[in-house]
């Protein structure tokens, strides 16, 4: 391939006027580097020297794992017993080996070991995954100088400080490198730093003059040098160091440093020396430990555990006091206990001692109040829920092959409680791919394709109108009207498939100017100039694709690429760039033959964010000097000459239309220059260019400004920053679900606003509050100014009477820096919360995190951050839930995230379906858990009161052991894994249902206490009904009375039945799995009892053959079970029946509609319910389309009235 | 349809696919008013008859309860009953006469009932050795029997507090001068006799210590035949309990008078426990147990009431 051969000998630095200016060597000497913080010495090309003392630099091996083989056990155990509940169970396990324990040791230790073991296994698995990820990075290959100018492949982890590394195009840098030379003659290279700061435009780095000769493998044969520089630090934008080469010392600055994890672009290769490796590299120094996040429910669960602990402590105290009293006053009389032969546990003489030791026993005995299996069950459930998320085919991206992934499973339910979404823009909402879509030349708009925004809006409108029609009309009329609507929308909603352009970056369609037809347009000369500007005014490099014979372009920004592709398609193919000229092949000329034209580039004033325009001054083949300029419309319009405003009005109108359609616009203008005028200016410009000093840049800008005036406007371009698939729809649904969406972007304000329009976060008629700061003023003045703006805006919102009025807050990074300061952030937050949408532009990664923290802490609500780049890592880690976009290069965001999805649109399903389900599942499951353990644990307490508080349990040890682990665990797990209040389709149709999560309807204290009360009630019923029934009478026709084993077993049977019926009542979705688990648990109990009874009596004790011989033949056993089960569940049953019928919740109504199949039979009712359930939103399509619908409806109304006059209709 | 399409289609149909997509066919019961009313009425119609039937069974049981712990202490000793009962030199026999109010059909079960007796105390419950009961004194690991494990350095069989405190009042029943035949066999669970108490295990060194608890055992009868012991060793759940003593295998007519000769040996006076003698017939349900029936009727009728209330409310505010 001949790729890149053309430009290899280019001195690209000549293209750049403003950035990347070389300070001349004389200007600055080497940095004086001494003292602490500057101790690093790197011997170039002698990596082995760094293995010895005093260097011992870190290798390039990276590890982000939490544990290693040695530390795993102690560390993981520590983590486990960090939890109060686990610590408590450890205590009980220790006690269980002493005689104080009311149970056998195994029944205490086994569940604990199981629970802790399972959690640790999960930890180990997660760490293993991290390890594998690290290994993937560590084993990437890179070319490293071996010996005698020979380069060979090495894995990244083997790269050492001092190694000479050769990085090729589109590879990542393995370590922080000092750039020595590149494939370009002047040592320039392009770097994409998306992984570091999220910026998509390429950065230019350049090598020192002295090392430019080192541009081939052989040159490194005898290369040596020494770098003295700063110690490893996390600052990405600074670097101080000296480079000693050939007995000369040169100063180094950040523009020679290539950072690890950034990527080489548009450059065939570079040579560099590794300075910082592995964890010393700047990006790794920046990495913060990802904080461990816990969900709201889990945090609240801690409080419940504390409540239960207090309950436990209280009843333990009661029982130990009772025991002490009984022991002191009554036990001496109980001769059958031989009170004279006492030990400390039963000592009437020392009741306090006995009481205290009994307290320990009681704490163990009532441990069943604290559900030991709660944590492990929740972990199991969450892992399964996470695997459902991972497996969801509807969140699988077929293009990239990436499924959604729950990377940490402990936040599943938090997905159901999100209040605010903070989203990155580039790569998250947009694909970062530009499509040339429309243009306006000489006041005429060209381009018939619609932007996605227009398409989607039109479709939505058509659907909504149909709905509304259906309500008001009968079938025959409907048809006619639909046609009307179709007519309205046909212009814009033409099917995408027919017009899908195969050319990347070009979706333009208009026969008037395509295929050379522009020649026949009235303003052909202006159109030609327009295309020439597109083809000439840029900094890109063409590349011949030898397979297809066409050219592709390597441009700094995707916009520029789109322009060049457009120019090519229009017949102005840019094919060659030399040091001083641009060559364009014009296919459709007046002559009819393709002509190659050369334009001599005299000056290039490139695009900077401050200038917002780009200008080239060229001399065409006729010797005419032209100034061609493209830039932001406001900038260009300010610089037009009097006679250059011919098309201003029309162009401006088109620009507004494009803006509304969500397109990025640029205005194009030119100016003809006289030779003398140019040379005079050029002299001044050259002078400014060679001037030395800090104000050189200002000087240059001023000179450039002088030339860029008196322009003649010729038109404007509209480029679509392609939104990712389904983004507007997703945002609309999320808005309907009541979520607030903030966009935080590093991009320019204009771009951000455009995207805001494109995703319907902004719309016409929305009041935009722009808060900006004038940077030139003193800090206090600026702050005061910002505060004024904020308070004014807040006032305005307060005074607004129109309920439909929507406000949008737009703020840039510089202003945000002030607004985030402590004394102002509350006001800022207050304003932001009042606004329907918030867009922060030009924000740094740190500010993203700060904004996230402000929202999280300021509002106390759950925040979700979504992003794709390394610049979003801070935000992702800071938010309650971090979501990374996978599938793009660079995994930082995904690595830091809790969930990853391939595209933004999957967020809808992740939140509205999985989040909603998981929240309800976990909430119900936790509530049920507490219910079940209270219901069971309290029966132990009641019974103890009947045993003189001696700590005897009525149940066999084995029953208790199995209770949590086997007999009641699977149904509750199935509740947590499979429960669905409504199906996923319904969730998506009724996004408003999601609000149940943020409003926390299923895990508020009212509900929790209700469940606890239910547990208390059940325990009372179970215990007292049983003991009264089995009090003293024979329970069989054979005259036998019930002993402790019979009573205990019956009671336990009742518990199993009551608890499992309760969970069945709680569920609303039964697959065979739930049936199996619930009824299987009951069956398992009988099976266990049967098998246990068959074992040798030395094992089963009093339970020997209890079912077969004693209980099963007794009718009273079965009738008591039935009675207790029904009595336990009757109040709950009544409660849910009454609630459902008289105070139904949203999902109840939907379930009922579904149940009656109303949605199929009665489409109208269904859609009415759907639109009713829509959250009133101010952002999103729905809100946006509303206005248009009203307008259209008015039109239709008029037509109706005329129709109705002709044909009388029965009122519907 | 191409092959791969069809394959994919088939894959979509598989249960596993449906499982991973959480789309398994499910039954989604919804508590609609009709269902609610049906369920409540159904519950009511199950429980009320069941309750009535059990109540009837319970009412058919005839029961005579006679407290004798105070009566059977002669007047002079009633100040200090404990020393009376502990004094071996005083004869403990005592007579009661019970009047049969209603016809009692054989078998008539004889129970003794103790109140305020903590047979469920943890110290008491633990103090036994199931292995020793099965294998005899060869089994040594009997530390659970503390404090009744050894006497004179010899193991006690059966060891432990439960056995040591064996109930030892005895009853004989006389009707019209003829002794009623009392069957004292088969009063314990068969599984206990066959598998938990050794057929070759004989009492050894039992009640030989300084502290004498309850009854003594005939050292020549194996434990598996000592049914009183077996019944006693089944510790009761509550501090008030009845245990089976034997069966009268003759019918008793109404107005019969049964005279009970009993040996009032067992000490319940120390802790103020009551002793009662109970004669009771049994139904298919067991003993006299009105509560079960009443509770069933209560649950049944409340669910019927709920159904009615619900129906009325539903009619009033139809959604």
Automatic annotation (TrEMBL), chain A:
Enumerate the subcellular locations listed in this protein's record, separating them with semicolons: Membrane
Cofactor requirement: Mg(2+)
Q: Where are the transmembrane segments?
A: 303-325, 356-378, 929-946, 958-978, 1008-1031, 1043-1064, 1076-1095, 1115-1138
Reading the lineage from the top rank, the first entry is Eukaryota
Q: What is this protein called?
A: Phospholipid-transporting ATPase
Signal peptide extent: none
PROSITE patterns named among the record's database cross-references: ATPASE_E1_E2
Start and end of every P-type ATPase N-terminal domain? 42-109
Task: Enumerate the catalysed reactions.
Answer: ATP + H2O + phospholipidSide 1 = ADP + phosphate + phospholipidSide 2
Look at the named UniProt entry and state the broad enzyme category this protein falls under. translocase
Does this entry carry the keyword Ubl conjugation? yes
Family, as annotated: Belongs to the cation transport ATPase (P-type) (TC 3.A.3) family. Type IV subfamily.
Q: Which organism is it from?
A: Durio zibethinus
A Pfam family the protein falls into: PhoLip_ATPase_C
What Enzyme Commission number does this protein have? 7.6.2.1
What GO CC annotations are associated with the protein? plasma membrane
Question: Which InterPro entries does the protein's record reference?
Answer: ATPase_P-typ_cyto_dom_N, ATPase_P-typ_P_site, ATPase_P-typ_TM_dom_sf, ATPase_P-typ_transduc_dom_A_sf, HAD-like_sf, HAD_sf, P-type_ATPase_IV, P-type_ATPase_N
P-type ATPase C-terminal domain: residues covered: 894-1144
Q: What is its membrane topology?
A: Multi-pass membrane protein
Has keyword Ion transport? no
Residues of the active site are 424 (4-aspartylphosphate intermediate)
From TrEMBL, chain B:
Q: Which Pfam families match?
A: CDC50
Q: Cellular location of this protein?
A: Membrane
Principal localization? membrane
What UniProt keywords are attached to this protein's entry?
A: Membrane, Transmembrane, Transmembrane helix
Keyword Transmembrane helix part of the UniProt annotation: yes
Q: Where are the transmembrane segments?
A: 30-52, 291-313
> Which Gene Ontology cellular component annotation is one that this UniProt entry carries?
Golgi apparatus
The domain of life is Eukaryota
- The answer, when asked if Nucleus is one of the entry's keywords, is no
Q: Which family does it belong to?
A: Belongs to the CDC50/LEM3 family.
PANTHER family, from UniProt? ALA-INTERACTING SUBUNIT 2-RELATED, CELL CYCLE CONTROL PROTEIN 50
Q: What is this protein called?
A: ALA-interacting subunit
């Amino acid at each position: 391939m001949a790729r890149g051969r053309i430009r290899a000998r280019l001195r690209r630095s000549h293209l750049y006027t403003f950035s990347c200016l070389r300070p001349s060597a004389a200007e600055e000497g080497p940095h004086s580097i001494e003292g602490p913080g500057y101790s690093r010495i790197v011997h170039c090309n002698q990596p082995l020297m760094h293995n010895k003392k005093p260097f011992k630099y870190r290798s390039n091996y990276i590890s982000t794992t939490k544990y290693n083989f040695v530390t795993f056990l102690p560390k993981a155990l520590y983590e486990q017993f960090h939890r109060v509940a686990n610590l408590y169970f450890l205590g009980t396990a220790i006690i269980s080996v002493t005689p104080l324990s009311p149970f056998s040791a195994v029944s205490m230790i086994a569940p604990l070991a199981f629970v802790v073991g399972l959690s640790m296994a999960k930890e180990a698995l997660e760490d293993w995954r991290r390890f594998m990820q690290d290994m993937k990075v560590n084993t990437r290959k890179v070319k490293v100088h071996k010996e005698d100018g020979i380069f060979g492949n090495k894995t990244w982890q083997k790269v050492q400080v001092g190694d000479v590394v050769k990085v090729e195009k589109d590879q990542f840098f393995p370590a922080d490198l000092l750039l020595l030379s590149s494939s370009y003659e002047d040592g320039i290279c392009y770097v994409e730093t998306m992984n570091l700061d999220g910026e998509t435009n390429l950065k230019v780095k350049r090598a020192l003059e002295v090392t430019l000769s080192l541009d081939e493998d052989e040159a490194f044969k005898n290369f040596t040098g020494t770098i003295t520089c700063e110690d490893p630090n996390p600052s990405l934008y600074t670097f101080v160091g000296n480079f000693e080469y050939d007995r000369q010392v040169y100063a180094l600055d950040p523009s020679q440093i290539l950072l690890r994890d950034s990527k080489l672009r548009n450059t065939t290769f570079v040579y560099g020396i590794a300075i910082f490796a592995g964890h010393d590299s700047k990006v790794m120094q920046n990495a913060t430990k990802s904080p461990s996040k816990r969900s709201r429910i889990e945090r609240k669960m801690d409080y419940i555990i504390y409540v239960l602990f207090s309950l436990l402590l209280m009843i333990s105290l009661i029982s130990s006091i009772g025991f002490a009293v009984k022991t002191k006053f009554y036990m001496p009389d109980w001769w059958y206990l031989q009170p004279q032969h006492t030990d400390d546990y039963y000592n009437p003489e020392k009741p306090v001692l006995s009481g205290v030791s009994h307290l320990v026993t009681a704490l163990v005995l009532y441990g069943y109040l604290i559900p030991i299996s709660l944590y492990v069950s929740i972990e199991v459930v969450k892992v399964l829920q996470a695997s459902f998320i991972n497996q969801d085919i509807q969140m699988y991206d077929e293009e990239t092959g990436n499924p959604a992934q729950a990377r940490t499973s402990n936040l599943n339910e938090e997905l159901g409680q999100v209040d605010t979404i903070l989203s990155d823009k580039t790569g998250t909402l947009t694909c970062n791919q530009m499509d040339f879509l429309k243009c306006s030349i000489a006041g005429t708009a060209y381009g018939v394709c619609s932007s996605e925004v227009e398409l989607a809006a039109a479709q939505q409108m058509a659907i909504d109108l149909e709905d509304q029609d259906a309500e008001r009309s009968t079938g025959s009329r409907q048809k006619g009207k639909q046609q009307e609507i179709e007519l309205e929308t046909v212009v814009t909603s033409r099917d995408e498939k027919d017009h899908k352009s195969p050319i990347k970056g070009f979706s333009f369609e208009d026969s008037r100017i395509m295929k050379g037809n522009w020649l026949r347009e009235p303003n052909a000369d202006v159109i030609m100039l327009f295309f020439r500007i597109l083809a000439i005014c840029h900094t890109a490099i063409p590349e011949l694709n030898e397979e297809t014979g066409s050219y592709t372009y390597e441009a700094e920004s995707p916009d520029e690429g789109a322009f060049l592709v457009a120019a090519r398609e229009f017949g102005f193919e840019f094919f060659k760039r030399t040091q001083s000229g641009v060559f364009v092949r014009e296919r459709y000329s007046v002559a009819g033959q393709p002509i190659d034209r050369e334009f001599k580039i005299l000056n290039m004033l490139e695009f900077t964010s401050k200038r917002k325009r780009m200008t080239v001054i060229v001399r065409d083949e006729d010797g005419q000097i032209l100034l061609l300029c493209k830039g932001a419309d406001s900038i260009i319009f300010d610089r037009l000459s009097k006679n250059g405003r011919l098309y201003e009005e029309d162009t401006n109108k088109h620009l507004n239309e494009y803006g509304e359609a969500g397109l990025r616009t640029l205005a194009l203008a030119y100016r003809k220059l006289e030779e003398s005028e140019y040379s005079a200016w050029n002299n001044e410009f050259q002078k400014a260019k060679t001037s030395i000093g800090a104000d050189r840049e200002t000087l240059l800008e001023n000179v450039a400004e002088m030339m860029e005036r008196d322009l003649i406007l010729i038109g404007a371009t509209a480029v679509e920053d392609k939104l990712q698939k389904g983004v507007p729809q997703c945002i609309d649904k999320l808005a309907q679900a009541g979520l607030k969406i903030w966009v935080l972007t590093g991009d320019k304000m204009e771009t951000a606003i455009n995207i805001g329009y494109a995703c319907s976060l902004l719309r016409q008629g929305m009041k935009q509050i722009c808060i900006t700061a004038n940077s030139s003023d003193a800090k206090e003045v600026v702050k005061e100014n910002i505060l004024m703006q904020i308070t004014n805006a807040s006032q305005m919102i307060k005074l607004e009477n129109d309920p439909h009025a929507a406000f949008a807050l737009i703020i840039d990074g510089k202003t945000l820096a002030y607004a985030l300061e402590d004394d102002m952030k509350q006001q800022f937050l207050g304003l932001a919360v009042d606004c329907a949408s918030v867009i922060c532009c030009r924000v740094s990664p740190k500010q993203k995190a700060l904004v996230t923290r402000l929202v999280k802490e300021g509002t106390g609500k759950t925040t979700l951050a979504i992003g794709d780049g390394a610049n979003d890592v801070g935000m992702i880690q800071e938010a309650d839930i971090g979501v990374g976009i996978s599938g793009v290069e660079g995994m930082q965001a995904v690595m830091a995230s809790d969930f990853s999805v391939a595209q933004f649109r999957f967020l809808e399903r992740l939140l509205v379906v999985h989040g909603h389900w998981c929240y309800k599942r976990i909430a119900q499951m936790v509530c049920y858990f507490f219910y079940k353990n209270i219901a069971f644990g309290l029966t132990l307490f009641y019974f103890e009161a009947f045993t003189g508080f001696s700590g005897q349990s009525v149940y066999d040890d084995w029953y208790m052991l199995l209770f949590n682990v086997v007999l009641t665990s699977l149904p509750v797990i199935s509740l947590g894994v499979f429960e669905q209040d409504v199906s996923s389709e319904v969730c998506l149709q009724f996004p408003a249902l999601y609000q149940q999560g943020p409003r926390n309807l299923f895990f508020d204290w009212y509900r929790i206490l209700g469940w606890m009360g239910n547990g208390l009630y059940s325990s009372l019923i179970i215990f007292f009904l049983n003991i009264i029934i089995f009090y003293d009478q024979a329970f069989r026709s054979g005259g036998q009375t019930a002993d402790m084993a019979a009573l205990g077993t019956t009671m336990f049977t009742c518990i199993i039945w009551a608890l499992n019926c309760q969970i069945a009542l709680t569920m609303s979705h039964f697959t065979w799995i739930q049936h199996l688990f619930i009824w299987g648990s009951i069956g398992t109990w009988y099976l266990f009892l049967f098998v246990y009874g068959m074992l040798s009596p030395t094992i089963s004790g009093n339970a020997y053959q209890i079912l077969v011989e004693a209980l099963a033949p007794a009718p009273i056993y079965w009738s008591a079970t039935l009675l207790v089960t029904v009595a336990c569940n009757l109040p709950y049953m009544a409660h849910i029946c009454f609630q459902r019928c008289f105070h139904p919740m949203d999902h109840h109504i939907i379930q009922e509609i579904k149940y009656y199949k109303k949605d199929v039979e009665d489409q109208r009712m269904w859609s009415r319910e759907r639109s009713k359930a829509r959250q009133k939103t101010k952002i999103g399509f729905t809100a946006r389309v509303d206005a248009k619908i009203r307008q259209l409806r008015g039109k239709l109304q008029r037509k109706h009235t005329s129709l109705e006059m002709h044909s009388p209709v029965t009122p519907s | 349809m191409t092959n791969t399409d069809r394959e994919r289609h088939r894959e979509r149909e598989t249960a596993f696919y449906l499982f991973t997509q959480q789309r398994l066919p499910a039954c989604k019961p919804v508590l609609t008013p009709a269902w609610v009313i049906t369920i409540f009425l159904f519950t009511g119609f199950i429980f009320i008859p069941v309750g009535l039937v059990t109540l009837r069974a319970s009412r058919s049981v005839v029961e005579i309860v006679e407290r004798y712990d105070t009566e059977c202490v002669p007047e002079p000793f009633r100040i200090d009953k404990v020393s009376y009962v502990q004094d071996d030199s005083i004869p403990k026999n005592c007579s009661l006469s019970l009047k049969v109010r209603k016809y009692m059909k054989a078998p008539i079960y004889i129970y003794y009932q103790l109140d305020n007796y903590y047979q469920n105390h943890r110290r008491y419950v633990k103090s036994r050795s199931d292995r020793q009961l099965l294998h005899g004194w060869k089994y040594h690991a009997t530390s659970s029997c503390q404090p009744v494990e050894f006497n004179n350095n010899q193991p006690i069989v059966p060891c432990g507090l439960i056995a040591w405190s064996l109930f030892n009042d005895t009853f004989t029943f006389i009707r019209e001068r003829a002794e009623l035949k009392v069957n004292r066999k088969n009063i314990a669970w068969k599984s206990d006799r066959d598998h938990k108490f050794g057929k070759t295990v004989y009492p050894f060194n039992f009640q030989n210590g300084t502290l004498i608890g309850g009854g003594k055992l005939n050292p020549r009868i194996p434990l598996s035949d000592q049914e009183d012991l077996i019944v006693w060793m089944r510790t009761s759940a509550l501090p008030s309990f009845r245990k089976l003593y034997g069966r009268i295998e003759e019918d008793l007519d109404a107005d019969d008078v049964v005279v009970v000769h009993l040996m009032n040996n067992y000490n319940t006076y120390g802790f103020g426990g009551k002793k009662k003698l109970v004669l009771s017939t049994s139904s298919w349900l067991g003993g006299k147990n009105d509560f079960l029936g009443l509770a069933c009727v209560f649950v049944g009728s409340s669910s019927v009431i709920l159904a009615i209330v619900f129906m009325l409310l539903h009619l009033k505010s139809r959604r």
